[in-house]
Design brief:
Blueprint lengths: L5 H18 L31 H12 L11 H4 L25 E2 L5 E2 L2 H13 L3 H4 L2 H11 L6 H13 L7 H6 L8 H10 L6 H4 L10 E2 L13 H4 L8 E2 L21 H10 L23 H12 L4 H4 L10
Antiparallel strand pairs: 1-2, 3-4
Helix pairs in contact: 2-6, 2-7, 4-7, 9-13, 12-13
């Protein structure tokens, strides 16, 4: 056989180079789309076209959520402040908002300091809160996961944020005893819990206006009468509009039994204290929400049994399936 000429050698080298490059990329059709199975009773979930939810992207996001390499010092991960069996909150960290059903949020943090979808929120987490050094992520195991999720091994803060957003979209709490009751299981809640539910959804209680829909939040900002001195606090600290002073984001009540302490400043340790506040602790200020009941009288003025019933109802919002879902826990090694 005659030796290859220079032209053939160059062509062969180019072919080998192309083959090597292809080996560094994963075909887009290898990424498997996930059906998130959002309950029909929930609002529609918006998923941006540039970040579809895939099995590979969720796996990467879950890894990063529990991975302390996301921190420049390697000392903390998202999961250190958001513990699954505490409803992805943490009683030891001040002012933590639970990571549950965030796919329906547009404002993030108690004062709405960050606005946008999950992608924007997670970029804030990666780039500002953590200050992630992508060089710490350039390790073989993560490079393989970025390749599977995005088609190349390139690691950027944007891709890390997009993967975290995909994982967050799977963190849907929807299977509490309350949900089963509404869906037709009359035995899912008891008589005391039903009485508490009646208070919750009554004009006397007014709870359902802010803790709205099956999400149990309207994702808006309200002054609920916590303090008389409100200047420059809450949403007003962000917008600089005095009409927003004292207004804080409505938290979801899903898994509220597990997510204490309560309020933006953790001032109440128990649900009983929260109900006592709404019953007799409201104080007037200029921006107090018009939905707050009987402000001049301190609140709802519930009798002791009514308060116990309302707390009992709130406990029916605990979703043990969500709190123990292994797919939301630490990745298996």
């Amino acid at each position: 056989m005659s030796a290859l000429g220079p032209g053939w050698v160059a062509l062969l080298a180019a072919a080998l180079s192309l083959t090597a490059a292809c080996a560094q990329e994963a075909p887009s059709n290898a990424r498997e789309l996930i059906d998130l199975r959002v309950p029909r009773s929930f609002p529609r979930m918006i998923v941006p076209e540039d970040n579809p939810t895939t099995r590979q992207g969720v796996a990467l996001g879950r890894q990063l959520y529990y991975d302390r390499r996301l921190s420049p010092t390697g000392t903390r991960a998202c999961a250190d402040c958001h513990i699954q069996n505490r409803g992805f909150s943490n009683p030891m960290v001040r002012g933590v908002i639970p990571h549950v059903n965030l796919a329906w949020s547009y404002y993030f943090l108690w004062d709405g300091h960050f606005e946008g979808g999950l992608e924007e929120a997670m970029r804030m987490e990666v780039e500002i809160f953590f200050g992630t050094d992508v060089n710490r992520l350039r390790e073989p195991d993560l490079e393989e996961m970025f390749l599977a999720a995005f088609g190349t091994r390139e690691i950027t803060t944007r891709r890390a944020a997009y993967a975290l957003a995909q994982f967050q979209r799977t963190m849907i709490s929807q299977d509490s005893r309350f949900d089963r009751y509404v869906d037709g299981d009359a035995a899912a809640i008891n008589e005391s819990e039903r009485r508490g539910m009646q208070i919750f959804y009554s004009e006397r209680g007014e709870c359902f206006h802010c803790h709205a829909t099956r999400l149990f939040t309207d994702n808006r900002f309200h002054n609920i009468g916590l303090d008389r001195q409100i200047a420059g606090t809450g949403r007003g600290a962000i917008t600089r509009d005095p009409q927003d002073d004292g207004r804080f984001k409505t938290p979801t009540l899903r898994n509220v039994e597990r997510t204490g302490p309560y309020m933006h400043d953790d001032r109440f340790a128990t649900l009983e204290q929260v109900v006592d506040f709404y019953s007799e602790g409201l104080v007037y200020s200029d921006t107090i929400d018009s939905l707050m009941p009987n402000v001049s009288g301190g609140g709802m003025r519930l009798a002791p049994q009514e308060r116990a019933d309302l707390v009992a109802f709130l406990r029916t919002l605990t979703d043990e399936t969500f709190l123990n879902n292994p797919d939301l826990g630490p990745p298996r090694r």
